[in-house]
Amino acid sequence: MSLITTRTAGVFVIAVTPFDETGALDRASLERVTDFYFEKGADGLTILGMMGEAPKLTQAESREVAAAAIRRAGGKPVVVGVSAPGLAAIGELSKAVMDLGAAGVMVAPPMGLTTNEQVESYFAQVVEVLGPDVPLVLQDFPLSTKVPISTGSLGRILEAHDSIVMVKHEDWPGLAKISALRAAEAAGRRRVSILCGNGGVFLPEEVARGADGAMTGFGFPEMLAEVVQRAAAGDMDRAQDIFDAYLPLVRYEQQPGAGLAVRKYVLAKRGAIASAAQRRPGAALPPAAVAEVERMLARQEAKLAALAEPA
């Protein structure tokens, strides 16, 4: 399997972890949803992310999910989230998944880092634990981690560690940070890949600012793929038109505590997974929310039909 690099681009879907109604891993659905993501245009996958319910898995289950997804991907790149409170756990899981054929690993800073110096020291320690040959994605997600990383601090981290080949950018608001990173590269700093998260809420603008694509989840990964392709090609109006058709559902997924339930409901409805179940703690969508999602899906279908290009 190829490794991610500073030139990696496209869409790496944050994969859900399928469970059955008892909370057990659904291994058949894991294979099915992996196929689904690639069939719908994903260039790669990121597994065991925050929306993959990674904290609810045991270490053994994490390795099992990684092994199954990497095997099913058939050589296409799979990045594995390995964030953990301690560096020993990060190092152990990283070695296991790289030995299985992962394309790289992703680490977010743990809560409790309050200064630029602490953040910079933390990633220096992560790189030391992983070694120089493991491609690393730095996840910049202060809304979740509560650890803001200034543009200057991020730049110093990138300058110090060549093995950090990608930034998963999901600061919010964060468009100016993308511009600043690219401006620094134009002035001579080494290039890194930038893939963006936050459910794709700002995806057209992020690509226009210089992002290489998306690393996020959504029940319609084909939207992410088409928007990135068209925006990267300079067809911003068409990219925005496609994005706008899906925007109500993208927005609805942003509800704290409900977003994963929405995403799994849509994926189950589309046949990508057998059940929308989450492992506890986690709840299914209530009937009122199901009705709202169904209405959005119907309107989305109508908008896409109106946008369909002539054969």
TrEMBL record:
The keyword Lyase applies. Keywords: Lyase. SUPFAM superfamilies: Aldolase. InterPro entries: Aldolase_TIM, DapA-like. It comes from the Bacteria. Belongs to the DapA family. This is Dihydrodipicolinate synthase family protein. It comes from Alloyangia mangrovi.
